[in-house]
Amino acid sequence: MQMHPEDNRSEPRPVEPAPPKSSGSEPIFKIPFVPLVVAVGLVGLFMAQSSLGQGGMEMGLRPVDLSAGYVGGLFTHMLVHGSWAHVIMNAVALLAFGTPVARDFDKGMGPIGWLLFFIVCGVLGGLGYALVHWGSYTPMVGASGAVFGMIGASLRLMAGPGLLIPLFHPVVLRGAAAWMAVNLVTGLLGSLLTGGEAGIAWEAHAFGFLAGIILIAPFHQFFSRKIHRMPGS
């Protein structure tokens, strides 16, 4: 559109300043792509789970299978859940605690690193459960071990973007004690929280949390551009 010369002499119109962006609340509504897809995928898989043999329970992790050399359950148990309450709690927690980890893994291969971190924490959580219940025929299902790995990792990212709190920092130790107390309570409540007769595999939570809180450090070295420790630590 053309402007006449006199238009240039007109008084500039006041511009309404844009409201400042809140750095604390806005990112909540910008969930990274990978955690969102995985969380939605877990719910979608549960919707299709009833069409599988034994309602998907054959994909669970039976400790006795590990003693026979079958390790597939260490991976497949994360894909099935015991109830709607179970899968929804895991999906919501994954969005909440997987998001800061995904934001921190900001290199080009960051999304792959996030998926790998999720799987490793889930596998180690399942392995810890199997070692405690060695020889058991009861299947354990759910991605809770992987989710607790994200919780442990997020605890060390609480200081802010790019700051990894040292493992034995009082903030980390207090947070870990609080989460393990919550884990113990949920384990004692058992079926009241799962919405069914199944108990809660609190051991998988504990081992997954331990894996996440430790392994977040080496994963930073490969997948984050940010600094990796607290100043002065």
From TrEMBL:
Q: What is this protein called?
A: Peptidase S54 rhomboid domain-containing protein
The record lists the organism as Brevundimonas terrae
User: Membrane-spanning regions, if any?
Assistant: 28-48, 60-78, 114-134, 140-159, 171-192, 204-223
Which Pfam families does the protein's record reference? Rhomboid
Q: Does the keyword Transmembrane helix apply?
A: yes
Localization:
Membrane
Q: Where is the Peptidase S54 rhomboid domain?
A: 73-220
Compositional bias annotation for Basic and acidic residues: 1-14
Record's InterPro entries?
Peptidase_S54_rhomboid_dom, Rhomboid-like_sf
Task: Give the membrane topology.
Answer: Multi-pass membrane protein
User: What are the start and end residues of every segment in region (Disordered)?
Assistant: 1-23
* Alphabetical UniProt keywords: Membrane, Transmembrane, Transmembrane helix
